[in-house]
Amino acid sequence: MAAFFGNLRNVVIAGFVLAIGVAAIYVGCLKGDIDMAFWAFVTRWLHVAAGVMWIGLLWYFNFVQIPTMPKVPAELKGGVTGYIAPAALFWFRWAALATVILGLGLASQSASYTLSDALTLGLSGAPNTAASLIGLGMYLGLIMGFNVWFVIWPNQQKALNIAGKYPNLAADEKAAAAKTAMIFSRINTMLSVPMLFCMLAASHI
Asked: Dihedral (C-alpha) 83, 185, 62, 167: value to the nearest 10 degrees?
C-alpha cells in the first residue's frame, strides 16, 4: 500500500478511474443520459479541478511560502527556491491556462447564456444576471491568467534563475523581479476572492 500511495502518478490515475466508475454507475444504475448536459458537467468538473490546483497554489504562495521565507535559515532557502518553488510554478501556470481554456469552453456550452452574453456582461440583449456574473468572473480570471503567464512567470524565472536562463543577472535585478512577481501574485490573490464569488453566484443566486 505504501508503494502505491508513494507514487503520485498511480494515485492520480486511480482517482480518474474511480471518477469514471462513478460515471458508469450514473449511466448504468441511475439511468443517466450521456447528453450535452453531461458533457457540459464534465467540462465544469475539469474546470473546477484545474481551478482548485491554480488557486490552491496561488494561496500556497501567498499564505505560506512568501510569509514563511524570511524565517527560513539561509542554508535552507535554496531547497525552496531551487526545487519547491519551480515545481509549484510549473503546476501553477499550466493549471491557470487549463482553467481559462476550460472556463471558456464551459461558457460556450451554457444553456442559460451564450459566450457572447458572458463576454458582454449580459448587457447585449435582455438583462441576464447569470451572464453578468459569469462574465465578470471570466474577465477577472483572464486578467489573473495574463498576470500568471506574462508577469509572474517571467519575473520568477529571473528571480529564481529557473532552468539556468539568467545565471548572470545582477542581485538588484533579481530582487526587482522577485518584487514584481510578488506584487502581481498579491493582485491575483485579491482578484481571486471576487472572481470565486462571481463564479459561484452565477449558478447559485
From this structure: 30
Give the whole-angstrom CA distance, residue 21 versus residue 18: 5
- Cell 474577465 belongs to residue: 139
Domain boundaries of the chain, sorted by first residue: 1-32, 35-204
- CB 41: neighbour CB atoms within 10 A? 16
DSSP 3-state of 123: coil
Instruction: State the Cα–Cα distance between residues 93 and 137, nearest whole angstrom.
Output: 19
The closest of 188, 194, 196 to 155, measured between CA atoms, is 188
Q: What is the pLDDT of residues 119-167, one digit of tens each?
A: 999 888 777 898 999 999 999 999 999 999 999 999 999 999 998 889 9
3-state secondary structure of 160: helix
CB 195 within 8 A of CB 137: yes
| Rg from Cα positions in the chain | 20
